[in-house]
Amino acid sequence: MPKIIDLFAGAGGLSLGAARAGFEISVAIEKDKHAFETHQKNFSSAKHSDADVSCLSGHRVLELAGLRKGALAGLIGGPPCQGFSNIGQRKANDERNNLFLHFFRLVSELLPKFFLAENVPGIMDERYQTLREKAFKLIKKSYVILPPFEVVASDYGAPTIRKRIFFIGYLPRYFAPLSLDSFAPSQDMTQVYVREALQGLPIEINPDWQSEESGWRPVKSLGSSYFVSRLIGNIPEGVGNPVLIERYTVRREVSGCIGTRHTPSVAERYGALCPGEKDEISKSVRLDPNGFCPTLRAGTDVTRGRYQAVRPIHYMKPRVITPREAARLQGFPDWFVFHRTKWHSFRQIGNSVSPIVAEHLLKTIFQKLTA
């Protein structure tokens, strides 16, 4: 199997898409200890490192992966996006923005057959043009670099309108020609709406379900659509926690059905909202069962105030969604587990690439890889 390395791996949205596309994750590099722990749970056969990407050389990355020079098929990753996000301060000199440069520096040192980087649409703002040009200058002599393109997850079969920018390049001697058209959504793709995405999950959530164990709850059988196939199966070899997968497949239980305590007045406000309406106090939007989920936010980490992200309100119940419902809406399978706490689970889901999108893009690359 072609080997890849996942930088800024997070919980593993890109990793899962890559594994389902036919690649093997040699090493995942993630500095956040909570995301690191989650990635380890779900990709136990991969090597892991919590090294700072900005301090890594290409040689050291290959050592971490256990690969010789020339054996790397691809480098993938989602450099931190907070400095580029429209909901942040968007400072051109945000120190986190340099990690985008370090991704491309490592591409230039590792010379993988292809690379794929992901970020928020804000990175295409004019104020970051110099940063982008500096990054591409590091590799333009070696790679065919496709124009950056925007992906809307709902166009690829995920039930969310989440938008992301992808940067893809490849060494032409290893590939059949690639173009932006190569990555277009399938013409026969059926769009998935909130009602279908949340089917089978428990609707009645006890607000006292606050522990990891109490969040394990029975799930009902589902249908046979493409989306459902991504929820219940398609587990690549070496991916998934065997003990937890058995709990899902044998006992038919899913994790992450953790409740949130609302005051009666909040529940009353939420219950009065129509689908698509926003609560003016919390800014939470009530989900439309016949529409898409808005972009799920990650919130901030402990170094930047530890603010929880605004969470959508369930379309049937006067409560915000659970981590498992968020995972469904982002396109993660039911057997995939997240952090034991709500806060870190939502951060990990909100920071992740939809595995459905990642699989589509990386499968296209896999099919075009000729050597």
Protein traits:
two-stranded antiparallel sheet, 30% helix, alpha/beta, 10 strands, Rossmann fold, globular, 8-stranded mixed sheet, 371 residues
Ordered list of secondary-structure elements with their pairings:
Layout: E1 3-7, H1 13-21, E2 24-29, H2 33-42, E3 47-49, H3 58-65, E4 72-77, H4 98-110, E5 114-119, H5 129-137, E6 144-145, E7 149-152, E8 163-170, H6 194-197, E9 217-218, H7 226-232, H8 242-251, E10 253-254, H9 264-272, H10 323-330, H11 342-351, H12 355-368
Parallel strand pairs: 1-2, 1-4, 2-3, 4-5
Antiparallel strand pairs: 5-8, 6-8, 7-8, 9-10
Helix pairs in contact: 1-12, 3-4, 4-5, 10-11
Structure description:
By secondary structure, the protein is α/β, with parallel strands linked by helices. The chain has a domain at 3-187 and 353-368: Rossmann fold. Helix content is 30%, strand content 12%. It is built from 12 helices and 10 strands. It has helices spanning 13-21, 33-42, 58-65, 98-110, 129-137, 194-197, 226-232, 242-251, 264-272, 323-330, 342-351, 355-368, and strands spanning 3-7, 24-29, 47-49, 72-77, 114-119, 144-145, 149-152, 163-170, 217-218, 253-254. The strands form 2 sheets. Strands 1, 2, 3, 4, 5, 6, 7 and 8 form an 8-stranded mixed beta sheet that branches. It has a two-stranded antiparallel ribbon with strand order 9-10. Strand 4, helix 4 (98-110) and strand 5 (114-119) form a beta-alpha-beta unit. Helix 3 (58-65) packs across helix 4 and helix 10 packs parallel to helix 11 (342-351). The radius of gyration is 20 Å and the shape is globular. The protein starts with a strand and ends with a helix.
